[in-house]
């Protein structure tokens, strides 16, 4: 694991958290002391080093996928976190109303801040501004979750695969997408065989070219039309 270059937590938090200047200095110091800067390689599970609960996480760089695992073992993607996103939905100890376990993995090499859950929960109890912020973030994550569920129920597998490829192209500004069929299946809560069959159909129509661990988009307009 490469050495982590220390980033100024106070500067980032003061610019990001709307409640920062409304809580006293001792509370700010407590949150800063309870925050750890961590790096995760692509594919790594996001874990907490000192608690069963992840706590609050702020993404410095990279991308994180939040998901749940069904009784049958299938992973169901709920939402994504990217640069500048904050989340406590993974923390049942911070948000007691959350009764299901959300898992997180780094979809790219990712750097983030992890806030120890007890410190953030304490700040919520002490300050209405912190609680309001946490609820606003929670609503945003549920909005992301509902969007994913709408995609699952409202779009065909052809449309969902096309949407995934187009979104990756738009996000990375690159026609070559480094992803396996298994990873797409996890993201779309589908079977690898189903994804492979759909990608083969796209290749037959010269929309994409399949390679080992990568997909090259040949016709962006065709993907957009399918979506």
Structure description:
By secondary structure, this protein is an alpha+beta fold. It has two domains: 9-153, Sandwich (Jelly Rolls); 155-226, Arc Repressor Mutant, subunit A (Orthogonal Bundle). The chain is built from eight helices and ten strands. The strands form three sheets. Strands 1-7-2-5 form a four-stranded antiparallel β-sheet. Strands 4-3-6 form a three-stranded antiparallel β-sheet. β3 and β4 (75-82) form a beta hairpin.
Describe this structure in a few short sentences.
Helix content is 43%, strand content 22%. The protein is α+β, with helices and mostly antiparallel strands.
Topology:
Blueprint (H helix, E strand, L loop, with lengths): L8 H8 L8 H9 L1 E6 L15 E6 L1 E7 L5 E8 L3 E2 L15 E4 L3 E6 L1 H10 L1 H27 L2 H16 L3 E2 L3 H8 L3 H13 L3 E4 L2 E4 L2 H7 L1
Antiparallel strand pairs: 1-7, 2-5, 2-7, 3-4, 3-6, 8-10, 9-10
Helix pairs in contact: 3-4, 5-8, 6-7
* Count of the domains: 2
CATH topology of the largest domain: Jelly Rolls
On the 0-100 scale, what is the average pLDDT? 86
* Euclidean distance between termini CA atoms: 39 Å
Query: What is the string of SSEs from the N terminus onward?
Result: HHEEEEEEEHHHEHHEEH
Number of helices: 8
